Amino acid sequence: MRAQQFTILRLCRAFSAKEVFMKQHLMRNINTISRCAALYRDAHLADCGLSGWQAPYIPEICAAPGITQDQLALRLHVNRSNVTRQLAMLEENGFVLRRRSESDRRAVEVYPTQKAEETLSAVRAVYRSWREKLFYDLTSEERDRLESLLERLARRAEDIQ
């Protein structure tokens, strides 16, 4: 009986270790894709004066002028201090204006400048180019399936958060 319990315990431990490894491997791959995407944006948006980590802010701010810093943090899934830091650089480089909200003096609203509006098409083009290069050898069915699975995981991650 003890030998059987030991074997079962070993199998459970082995399975758990394998499961943990697979989850870490998946998360490492997702993280690698995210970081490589930021590096790609860095290289292709440098002429516009944007970093790869600032680029996601431009479409969000242009789509919702007056969005608050807290709303940006929620939409981009980053902490508020990162948003504050990135917006300070975007403001310094002429992409955004920040103002205290009239209705809630604690909130800071963010508005795109003409420079941000003019840069928006370049940002979208870089995103499009990245997607095309990343998915070039996937069939449309594979793309659809991957997108569906990642959307499910993203929703679940938001719920867990």
UniProtKB/TrEMBL annotation:
Endpoints of the signal sequence: none
HTH marR-type domain boundaries: 23-155
One Pfam family named in its UniProt record: MarR
Alphabetic keyword roster? DNA-binding, Transcription, Transcription regulation
GO terms for MF:
DNA binding; DNA-binding transcription factor activity
Q: Which Gene3D superfamilies match?
A: Winged helix-like DNA-binding domain superfamily/Winged helix DNA-binding domain (1.10.10.10)
Q: Which InterPro entries match?
A: HTH_MarR-typ (IPR000835), Tscrpt_reg_MarR-type_CS (IPR023187), WH-like_DNA-bd_sf (IPR036388), WH_DNA-bd_sf (IPR036390)
This protein is called MarR family transcriptional regulator
